Structures are given as structure tokens and as C-alpha cells.
Amino acid sequence: MAQVTSLKQMAELVKGGPLKRVAVACGQDPDILGALARAVNEKSAQAILIGDQKKTEALAKENNIDPKIFTLIDETDYKKAAARAVEMVKKGEADVLMKGLIDTAVYARAYLNKENGLTTGATVSHVAVFEVPNYPRLLILTDAAQIPYPDFGQKVDMINHAVSVAHKLGIETPKVAVLTATEKVNPKWPCSLEAAQLAKMADRGQIKGCIVDGPLSMDAAVSPECAAGKGLKSPVAGYADILVCPDIHGANFIYKTLAQLAKAELAAMVIGTSAPVVLTSRTDSDDTKFMSIVLSALMAK
């Protein structure tokens, strides 16, 4: 499989294959409806919307969308709608879970519920895939939305999750940059020590399917010129496919900077659950919501 270098190419991978079913918690949202209609019409997915059916139908018609292209399940209570969507995925009646017009905390509690949710005992992390205008390859970022302060074991799992996404995108041996503020190991900065340990684990085959290096600063990770200027000898520096951040704050800053200032296109999902989970923000564009559906469909079993 050739390496995917754009989100458009990623979308083409999904078209024509078995259609994955997306269960949406509280689908009565115009932006979500637009993204889902595009996915259905482009034969990228099927959509099951659980929520206020009358509002959903009215919104669809207001936006020139035929509501009949969706499967609609009436449930006006948003907590019950989220539970029903999760239940459908859990039972195999849907392949992907998606957030609609519902508070993120309520949505997260539904899919992270230990008894009735989609957890498997594995680390659950957030992965975003960016197409940055001046970067020659897709750039994968973790974790901007799920784990506030990942411990060492969670960082190992975050890398493995991101690598699984990279492999689906045809990146055979992704280059993983574990980010800190500088390239030097500083005993006073635990994140720099962990970055060096993660790199050594990969060297010894304890993290597979990728090349890991760290600590690396953001500029050294993505710019060959910066890496050369700093005298770095690294198989990753300047050519990173995956960025691993020390905490949610750093990852979120990068996520929003790329989206808002660099005008990057992106897709994002939660992984480590029994099925992919689409977790988009209300400020995300229609394209982001659509591409997140596509990415999750690509990753669905």
C-alpha cells in the first residue's frame, strides 16, 4: 500500500469498501448532519442518529438534506441517547461512535463507563491527523483531548495507538518524536527522562513498528534545517510522522495552532476503545467532522 499523504487520499481509501455504521449520540446538530450527509452520499459510511427525531428531521430539511438517508431513532433525553448509541456499538449494531449535540463530559462518561461503555482495560487516547500546507507528509498528534497528564505506561500506549493509525495510512515505519522544550535530557524534567527511555525501548524492540527519538523540541522534530542547525544526529529529527506530547496542554496548543493559524486540515478520534470514537469540537469545521468520520471508519474493524 502506498503511503497516504493527504486527507483526500485517506477518504478515497474508505470509498467503495464495506460501509461502516456510525451511531451518533444526539444527532440534532446542523454541522454534524452536514458531515454525515456527505459521508453517506460519498459512500464513506452509514449513519444512525439517536436523538430528537422531530428536530433532526426539521434541521435536515432546513439544510437541504433528505432525512431519509439516515436511520433515525427517537430519544429526546440526551443521556439516554448517548447510552443507546454506545449500546449499539457495544452490541455490534454500529461500528463507530460519534458525538452530536451533547456535552463532551456526558458523552465521555457514556463511552468510558466501565460496565456499559466501550472500554477494554487498555489506555484510551486521542489521535489527530493533520494535513499541514507546508509539511510534506501527514502529521499525527497525541494526546490533545483525552489524557491530561499521561504517565510513562500511558505514553507507551499512546505511541502504539498512533502507530496503528500511521500503519493504516500506509506509513510503514513511522518516525515518532517525543516532544519536550529542548533536545537535552534534564534530570529536573521528568518528561525529558521519559522521552529518552521511550526512545531506548524502541531501540530494543519493546515498542514495535516505528522509530522513536526524544527528547526533541517541536522545531527540531519537523524542520530538517532546525535539526541540522542544532547539530542533531537523529533518524527522526526533521521528518517526524508522529508527535507525542508530555501533557494535554502542549498537545492542545499544537492542535489548535495548526488548525487556526496554519490552516491545516485534520481528522481526530479516540482510540483504545472497543470501537473508534469520534470526538470533535463545536468549533471544528465541517471538513474536520467529515474527515474524522472517515478516519474512524478506516480504523473500524
- What are the secondary-structure elements, in order, as H or E? HEHEHEHEHEEHEHEHHEHEEH
Write the CATH architecture name of the largest domain: 3-Layer(aba) Sandwich
Mean pLDDT figure: 95
The Rg value, from CA coordinates, equals: 19 Å
For the biggest β-sheet, the strand order reads 8-7-9-6-5-10
Q: What is the class of the largest domain in the CATH system? A: Alpha Beta
Named CATH topology of the largest domain? Rossmann fold
Task: Estimate what percentage of residues fall within beta strands.
Answer: 15-25%
Content-based structural category: alpha/beta
Helical coverage, percent range: 40-55%
Distance between the termini: 18 Å
Q: Total strand count, please?
A: 11
The tally of structural domains comes to 2
General form: globular
Unreliable spans are none
Task: Write up what this structure looks like.
This protein is of the alpha/beta class and 301 residues long. It folds into two domains: 141 residues, Rossmann fold; 136 residues, Isopropylmalate Dehydrogenase, CATH 3.40.718. The protein has eleven helices and eleven strands. The strands form two sheets. It has a six-stranded mixed sheet with strand order 8-7-9-6-5-10, sandwiched between helices. It has a five-stranded parallel sheet with strand order 3-2-1-4-11, with helices on both faces. α4 packs parallel to α5. The longest helix is centred in the middle third of the chain and has 17 residues. The two termini are 18 Å apart. The mean pLDDT is 95.
